[in-house]
């Protein structure tokens, strides 16, 4: 099975080297430790969540704000809005620059959705984080450097695929996000060894492709005997 990548599009990247204390507070930064912000918008929310986590592995930055926009990038509020706003905070502008550089590398070379059908009408995110950073590990209740399968697909595809992933790999569900999420998808975070997280992601992607090919399963064939 070969899935066609759908590269994430970074829509805006801006730096605030000396952000106003009120803005720092609004975005959840700590004015005692943070003075600078880095703001990014992107047309793929889950890809940016992974990239924000990657930034924490390469720079002394904190992810102080990351939120998906309702209904997805196709219904964004403006040309630069995309699907998500992510905000990094740090003491110095240099640390922000290092964090943003790592984030952009991740979006360019690693984290993205994939087309699960020939017309690219079904997208899947079968991503494996080999070693979690500070951001996603806290959200997942895991330790930094643990492995995690970060799995996203449309509602029915995600439901069938998650069942297959859990049954085909020695992993446990950390969090399950039933539909609808803000972008009307569904998601799950699974953890285990790196090999098992990869196996879970592969099973998940295979199931999403299969559902796309056979959306209306034959009832007689599906009934257990």
Q: Could you say how many structural domains there are in total?
A: 2
Discrete helix count: 7
| Termini gap | 29 Å
- Please state roughly what percent of the residues sit in beta strands, choosing from under 5%, 5-15%, 15-25%, 25-35%, 35-45% or over 45%: 25-35%
Q: So, CATH architecture of the largest domain? A: 2-Layer Sandwich
Summarize the structure.
With 225 residues, the chain is of the alpha+beta class. Helix content is 36%, strand content 27%.
Report on this model:
- There is one protein chain.
- The protein folds into two domains: 104 residues, BMC (bacterial microcompartment) domain (Alpha-Beta Plaits, 2-Layer Sandwich), CATH 3.30.70; 98 residues, Alpha-Beta Plaits, CATH 3.30.70.
- 36% of the residues lie in helices and 27% in strands.
- It contains seven helices and ten strands.
- The protein has a six-stranded antiparallel sheet, sandwiched between helices. Strands 2-3-5-4 form a four-stranded antiparallel sheet, covered by helices on one side.
- A hairpin with a 7-residue loop joins β6 and β7.
- The longest helix has 20 residues.
Task: Give the secondary structure arrangement, pairings included.
Blueprint: E1 4-6, E2 10-16, H1 21-26, E3 36-42, H2 45-58, E4 62-68, E5 84-90, H3 93-109, E6 113-115, E7 123-129, H4 134-140, E8 147-153, H5 155-168, E9 172-177, E10 186-192, H6 194-213, H7 219-222
Antiparallel strand pairs: 1-6, 2-3, 3-5, 4-5, 6-7, 7-8, 8-10, 9-10
Helix pairs in contact: 2-3, 2-4, 5-6
């Amino acid at each position: 099975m070969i899935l066609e990548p759908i590269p994430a599009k970074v829509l805006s990247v801006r730096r605030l080297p000396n952000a106003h204390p009120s803005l720092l507070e609004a975005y959840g930064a700590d004015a005692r430790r943070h003075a600078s912000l880095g703001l990014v918008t992107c047309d793929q929310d889950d890809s940016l969540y992974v990239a924000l986590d990657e930034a924490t592995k390469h720079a002394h930055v904190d992810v102080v704000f990351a939120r998906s926009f309702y209904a997805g990038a196709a219904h964004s509020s403006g040309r630069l809005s995309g699907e998500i706003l992510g905000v990094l905070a740090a003491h110095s502008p240099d640390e922000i620059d290092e964090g943003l550089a790592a984030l952009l590398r991740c979006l360019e070379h690693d984290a993205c959705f994939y087309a699960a059908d020939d017309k690219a009408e079904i997208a899947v995110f079968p991503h494996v984080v080999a070693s979690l950073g500070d951001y996603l590990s806290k959200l997942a209740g895991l330790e930094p450097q643990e492995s995690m399968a970060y799995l996203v697909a449309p509602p029915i595809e995600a439901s069938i695929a998650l069942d297959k992933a859990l049954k085909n790999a020695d992993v446990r569900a950390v969090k399950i996000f039933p539909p609808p999420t803000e972008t009307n998808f569904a998601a799950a975070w699974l953890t285990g060894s790196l090999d098992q997280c990869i196996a879970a992601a592969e099973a998940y992607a295979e199931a999403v492709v299969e559902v796309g090919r056979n959306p209306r399963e034959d009832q007689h064939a599906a009934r257990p005997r």
